[in-house]
Amino acid sequence: MKQVVVIGGGVVGLTTAWALVQAGHRVTLVERAEALAEGASRANGGQLSYRYVSPLADAGVPLKALGWLLDRDGPLRFRPDGTLAQWRWLAAFLARCRGDVNRRMTARLLALGAFSQQSFMALQREAALNAIELRSPGKLVAYRKPASFARAAASADGRGPERALSRDECLALEPSLADCETPWLAGGIFTAGEAVADCHALCLQLAQRLAQHPGFAGVMHAQALGFLQQGDRVVAVRTSMGEIAADDVVLAAGLQSTALAAPLGLRLPLYPLKGYSLSAPIAGHHRPPAVSVTDFERKTLYARIGQQLRVAAMVDLVGDDTRLDPGRLAALHRTVRASFPKAADYAQAVPWAGLRPATPSGAPMLGATPVRGLWLNVGHGALGFTFSFGSARILADLVSGRPSPLDLEGLGLRAA
């Protein structure tokens, strides 16, 4: 049994801690905030999109980005933050905006998504998470432009789980799409079995299960400051509450991981992709979508989570800024009221903004580092909820000295 410290109390850190205690290790979780799951796990989109994992970097994206930047309600915003890290990340991202790179990375992420789906089912059996508003209604990616839908439909060849649906078939599947005054739907790609759940509720319930586990040493709410080393090996974590001895340390602290790794000579290519969400209450007279819907062109997703409609959107490259921008919130309100006007009480919607730690490649960084005893589980971007279960099991196997259950080519520090 090893003494392992996991740094980060979001969904990635909590699932990693669970996988490690289940593997027989003694685990301490370090979280700098006063409560768990208050960062990117707090009010994210809630979709478990195991099949919809294509990275943002792709051929044609730079040209599309120019159009998005000129649209006041567009999904993208860019503001120079005065750091070299922003420009370095953008350069690496643009270098990956090629079709062949996107196809290779999509294949790797699909494998990780499938493994994560299996891992989530195993976690459900082990931890009996029963208050997380889990549903599996399937996912509909809705297209506004006929040309975009035609390209997507051509890729859905019928051999996989995706089905191309005409506009009428989409409306039959999800009648709430017909509620807008101005029809916007050209067609859609439906994937059965895709799920939605309350990420924050899952984190809190998993923390309760961890507290009852004999292998869990507890949560230390403290700021991680750095590491103690003996030779080339990490032997302890320095925190604002004192030192914690460790045989191994897993960095799962999102953006904070960059500053922690830097003194060890490790440059983690992470940048915050700021996203927004609305959580709007649903009453009896509302008509929310039953299936999980993603508006492809507007990059907006809709998921019913219990008696709320969660709407998540936008990628803002504006640095470490979690403030609620009134202009961006107004844009999101205009989009949702035009697309699903009867789905929820938007006047009572609770807004949220969070920073999603992303790599230029769109793939998380999993596995060992050049520093012995230090492991990475970071950089999941907008798919942290989806990938957390699989990446946690991978880390637990690696820390335990077992080979990864998944080929990690393209998912390591150098690949990012």
UniProtKB/TrEMBL annotation:
Gene3D superfamilies: D-Amino Acid Oxidase, subunit A, domain 2 (3.30.9.10), FAD/NAD(P)-binding domain (3.50.50.60). Residues 4-398 form the FAD dependent oxidoreductase domain. GO terms for molecular function: oxidoreductase activity. It is an enzyme of class 1 (oxidoreductase). Its EC number is 1.4.99.-. Transmembrane segments: none annotated. Keywords: Oxidoreductase. Belongs to the DadA oxidoreductase family. This is D-amino-acid dehydrogenase.
